[in-house]
Specification:
Length: about 350
C-alpha cells in the first residue's frame, strides 16, 4: 500500500483536484437556473429536475474556517417535492488522466467541508472516463446549517473498467445532493459496472423547499488512508492550473499587419498559456481599426488552420468589405474565450 508520505518524498502533488477551494470563477460567480455546464473553473454542474430550479454561486460570507475565501453554493429557487427516474442534482471535478495517474490502483481519501440546510444522507461518487464503472459512498449531514468535516475512503481498482492516464478524462469526483432511482446503486464502497452517482439511502430532501442550500469547501483527494491537512495553494497557482482548461484573453489595441484581401483582413497570432489540448474558441466584440475616415469596423472572425495548445492564428475579417493594403498597420480589439475542458 502506498501512503501519502511516499508521494511527498517523490515530490508528487498531494491534492489532485484543480480549483478545490473554489477560488477561480472565470465565467462568472452566479448561474441562475443552470441545468448543465461549468460553473467554478473545472467544476461541472448537472441539474435534471422536472420542475425544480437551482442557482449555483460563489459564496463568501459563510465559511468553514479562516483558510477559505469562497465556497460552492447551490440554492433551491423552485422546489420539487419528489424525484423519479433520472431526476438529479450533481456536480463534479473532472480530473485529467495525468493528475489521476498517481492514484491508479491505490488507496485514497476524499475529504471536504459540507454545509446544508437539510440534514440527512448524501452521496459522493467516482466514475471512469466513459462512466462505465462507478464507486458510490454515502455521507451524513448531522445538523442543519452547520459546517461538518467529512472523510471518504476509496480504492482506485484499475482492474475493473478502462482508465485513461494521459490528457483526457481520468476520473470524475462528484457530489450528489439528490437523485432518482435510475442512477442509484445498492452496492456501495466498491467499483461496479454502470453509471451511478448515489445509493438508495440518499434522503432526497434537499430539493423539497425553496432556499434550501448546499455548500462545499476545501475538497481534497489524496493518496493514503488518512485525510491530512488541506493543501492551500496560492491564488497564482490556482489560476495557472485552471488556465490549462479555460482562458479568457482580452485583446486591447493589439498591433497587426493586414493581409491583401478584397474584404479586408488581418491575421493575429495569439500566444496563450499552454492548454490541455487544442482549445475550442469563441470571440466577442472584435473590431479592426484601419487608418482613414472609416476608423473602427466590426468583424467576422474565423480560425486559421494554425492552432495548437500554445498558440492560435486568428483571421479577423472586416465585414464592411473595405479595401486593405497588404502590410498595412492596423489595431485589433476583442475578447477570446478558449476552452479545453474535459
Amino acid at each position: 500500500m502506498t501512503l501519502y508520505s511516499d508521494y511527498h518524498r517523490n515530490n508528487i502533488r498531494k491534492n489532485i483536484l484543480v480549483n478545490s477551494n473554489f477560488n477561480i470563477w472565470t465565467v462568472g460567480t452566479t448561474f441562475v437556473g443552470i441545468t448543465n455546464g461549468y460553473t467554478a473553473d473545472c467544476w461541472y454542474y448537472g441539474e435534471g429536475l422536472t420542475t425544480g430550479v437551482t442557482t449555483v454561486s460563489a459564496q463568501s460570507t459563510l465559511l468553514p474556517n479562516s483558510a477559505c475565501a469562497k465556497t460552492f453554493k447551490i440554492n433551491i429557487d423552485t422546489a420539487q417535492s419528489s424525484l423519479s427516474g433520472g431526476e438529479l442534482i450533481h456536480f463534479m471535478n473532472r480530473v485529467e488522466g495525468y493528475n489521476f495517474l498517481p492514484l491508479a490502483g491505490k488507496v485514497a481519501t476524499l475529504s471536504f467541508w459540507a454545509y446544508c440546510s437539510t440534514p440527512g444522507v448524501y452521496c459522493v461518487f467516482f466514475r471512469n472516463q466513459s462512466a462505465a464503472v462507478s464507486y458510490v459512498r454515502d455521507f451524513t449531514i448531522n445538523s442543519a446549517n452547520t459546517w461538518e468535516f467529512k472523510r471518504i475512503p476509496v480504492i482506485f481498482n484499475d482492474t475493473i473498467g478502462t482508465w485513461n492516464y494521459s490528457n483526457a478524462l481520468g476520473v470524475d469526483v462528484g457530489f450528489t445532493p439528490c437523485c432518482g432511482p435510475t442512477y442509484q446503486t445498492a452496492t456501495t464502497g466498491q467499483w461496479v459496472s454502470g453509471n451511478y452517482i448515489a445509493s438508495p439511502n440518499i434522503s432526497n430532501n434537499f430539493q423539497k423547499n425553496i432556499n434550501n442550500v448546499f455548500l462545499l469547501s476545501q475538497v481534497q483527494l489524496e493518496a493514503g488512508e488518512v485525510a491530512t491537512e488541506y493543501e492551500n495553494k496560492s491564488i497564482n497557482q490556482d489560476s495557472l492550473e485552471c488556465r490549462r482548461y479555460y482562458q479568457v484573453i482580452q485583446i486591447n489595441h493589439m498591433h497587426a499587419l493586414s493581409a491583401q484581401n478584397s474584404a479586408g483582413a488581418a491575421y493575429a497570432n495569439i500566444y496563450i498559456h499552454p492548454m490541455r489540448t487544442t482549445p475550442t474558441f469563441a470571440i466577442t466584440g472584435s473590431q479592426i481599426w484601419k487608418p482613414g475616415p472609416n476608423g473602427w469596423r466590426n468583424t467576422t472572425t474565423t480560425a486559421n488552420s494554425v492552432a495548437t495548445s500554445k498558440r492560435m492564428r486568428l483571421l479577423f475579417q472586416d465585414t464592411a468589405s473595405s479595401d486593405f493594403i497588404a502590410g498595412e498597420s492596423i489595431l485589433i480589439v476583442g475578447t477570446i474565450w478558449l476552452s479545453a475542458y474535459l
